[in-house]
From TrEMBL:
Protein name (Swiss-Prot/TrEMBL): CarD-like/TRCF RNAP-interacting domain-containing protein
Database matches in InterPro entries: CarD-like/TRCF_RID (IPR003711), CarD-like_C (IPR042215)
Domain CarD-like/TRCF RNAP-interacting: 3-54
């Protein structure tokens, strides 16, 4: 069970802070189950979810794990995945989200970035499905890294670039 104040990853919502644990005063939720009240850190609103929900939850990675992940970026092998069937393409990209692991989101971003570079070389644009999944992966990844590193989300990309350049 998480504690009030914990920063967690909740499903594909991203980083949320556990604001309260208890039975919210919302009639439709009933009074028989404990709920987490979660505050998403990068969007408005509150989330009420049962403590025993099946939705994936885990603590945000540590600063050490974040730095390790960033240091490993140059060794992440990027591969271009091509599929003209949008459903199969979406399913392929969704599989990276289903693990809820930063390393998988990083791999997705690297793969789509390589695909984008390849498309530009051929005078083409990246497809909408590719762009959508890359944007979402970056959003989730940068949100968690920002919290882990204690920096603003908008500074994560620059932090990664500097860290990778220093390693090389």
């Amino acid at each position: 069970m998480y504690e009030t104040g914990d920063l967690i990853i909740y499903g594909n919502e991203g980083v949320c802070k556990v604001d309260a644990i208890g039975m919210p005063d919302i009639p439709v939720l009933g009074k028989k189950r404990l709920y987490y009240t979660l505050l998403p850190q990068y969007q408005e609103g509150k989330i009420f979810t049962p403590v025993d929900t099946k939705i994936f939850m885990r603590h945000v990675i540590t600063k050490e794990k974040a730095e390790e992940l960033i240091a490993d970026i140059p060794s992440v092998k990027a591969e271009i995945y091509e599929n003209n069937n949008m459903r199969f393409l979406s399913e392929h990209y969704q599989s990276f989200f289903d693990s809820h692991e930063c390393k998988d989101l990083l791999k997705l971003v690297r793969d789509v970035y390589l695909k984008e570079c390849d498309a530009k070389e051929r005078g083409k644009k990246l497809g909408q499905v590719d762009e959508k999944y890359m944007r979402r992966a970056e959003e989730l990844l940068h949100g968690e890294l920002a919290v882990a590193l204690g920096i603003p989300k908008e500074d994560v990309k620059e932090y990664i670039t500097k860290s990778v350049e220093e390693e090389n």
